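Hi Q.,

Before the meeting this afternoon, I wanted you to have the protoporphyrin IX containing FE prediction in hand. No need to reply - just skim if you have a minute. The sequence and ligand are here:
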Amino acid sequence: MSDGSRDVPAEPPAPTTPYEAMGGHETFRRLVHRFYQGVATDPVLRPMYPEADLGPAEERLLMFLEQYWGGPRTYSDLRGHPRLRLRHAPFPVGPVARDRWLAHMRVGVDELGLPPDLERQLWDYLVMAADSMVNTFDEPTGTST
Ligand code: HEM
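Predicted structure with the ligand bound:
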């Protein structure tokens, strides 16, 4: 009787991930790129990065964040289990480094112009994650005293 075009859908809509809701790859690429522009000139953070080229570090953070928010699982395919605290153990992450890390992220988050609820979700996570990465209270401050 009917060609089906006016039928009710055969299955519920696929649930969207925060990754998709936030704008997918383009959003995370912009966020991480803006963040690393800040790191590149930061007197505390820049010396902590072992490689002269920040490109590969940018790529790793991008893959990790995309995976965390429900995007492609490329990070784990290439790097294995994140174990982020362990991977940060070689770097002295104190409150100063954490605050600078978050300040560069804040610039990136602000420029995304996300809807407030998604922005809050993303920001709360970044603050929590950065806090959990602190592994010293004895850190370089980037200024000679
Ligand atoms: C709190 C201040 C932080 C500092 C100073 C810091 C610093 C660093 C440094 C120096 C590296 C090595 C660069 C590389 O070779 O990839 C690194 C790697 C990385 N960081 Fe952080 N980080 C911080 C917080 C975070 C947070 C909050 C996250 C996640 C939300 C994160 C995710 C990563 C990832 C995914 C890698 C690459 C790990 C790997 O696969 O080797 N970092 N970080």
